[in-house]
Structure formats: C-alpha cells, structure tokens
Write a structure and sequence with these properties.
Layout (H helix, E strand, L loop, with lengths): L1 H16 L2 E6 H6 L2 E9 L4 E10 L11 E12 L6 E18 L7 E19 L4 E12 L8 E12 L1
C-alpha cells in the first residue's frame, strides 16, 4: 500500500510541476467562425506534446471556410531555440476529422459530400511567452489526407493562438 501511495504521489507531483499551456486560436475564431482550442504539455525544455480540438460554425455554402466540420489534432513540437521569451518550433501532427467536400457539377446546384479521414502533416511557427505566462504563437502547416477517396487531398493547419502557460 505504501508503494502505491508513493507512486501515486510522484505521478501527481510530476504532472503538477510540469509546464502546461491552454490556448485559443484567435485567428480561426475571428476569420473562419471556428473554435479551435489547444492543450500543450512539456516533456522537456525543448519538446512538448499537445492536442487541438476544432469545431466549425460556418455554413457549408460559405465562400471562405475550412472543409472540416470538426477535427482532433494530436501533435509533437520541438523547439529550436533556447530563449525562454521567443522560440521557433517545428511540429508533426496527425489530424482526425470529418467534414463536407463541395462537388461541382455544371448546371446543377452545389452538392456536398460528407467524409471522414485522417491527415498526417508538418508545421512551423514561433512562440512568445511573457514572464507572467501570457503567450502568443503563430504557425503554418500542411497535411495530406490518407484514407478516403472523397476527402480533400490537403488539410491546412494555420493559426494565431493566445493563451496561458502555467
């Protein structure tokens, strides 16, 4: 019983002392009418893992929107610089999403075909973290859908996040 209590205490201490971030992609919210929130957990000073959740509120018929209705994106980031305030990073990610692809047929009204697929991709970006923990990061990346023939070939990953590091 003492060993289990010791292991549990060490696990909780490790999780609570680790650096973590919670972020909102403000660019997606303002431009695309999409909510995109992220959680990031630092494994070391230069490596972190995270997960993003996206939900699209824009109408299918809008001229400018993501194809994805919803998407979960786990990612792994590596930071290239040692500066605590400004940092450059590269990211590998795997997105699991569903959405609607527009099918255009001459002389017919727009038809939307539903799809589900997974995408593998990379992105690059920069992050600013203030001494108080406020952060802003910006990134751009691209992924390729892997499995479905009726999904779009490419999936963008673009964002400007604001959040808090604790």
């Amino acid at each position: 019983m003492k060993k289990i209590l010791l292991i549990f205490t060490l696990l909780i201490a490790t999780i609570t002392l680790a650096q973590q971030e919670v972020k909102l992609n403000i660019a997606n919210a303002l431009i695309f009418k999409t909510i995109d929130v992220s959680y990031e957990y630092y494994l070391s000073g230069d490596t972190s893992i995270g997960i993003s959740g996206l939900y699209n509120f824009e109408q299918k018929s809008a001229d400018f929107r993501y194809n994805e209705e919803s998407m979960i994106t786990p990612y792994l980031r590596h930071y290239f610089t040692a500066d605590r305030v400004w940092n450059l990073f590269g990211e590998g990610f795997f997105g699991i999403g569903k959405g609607y692809k527009k099918i255009e047929i001459v002389g017919e009204p727009n038809i939307y075909e539903k799809y589900s697929d997974s995408a593998l991709g990379i992105s690059f970006g920069a992050k600013y973290v203030s001494e108080s923990g406020f952060l802003v990061d910006a990134y751009v990346g691209i992924a390729r859908n892997l499995f479905s023939a009726n999904s779009p070939i490419l999936v963008p990953r673009v964002g400007v996040n604001v959040g808090w590091k604790f």
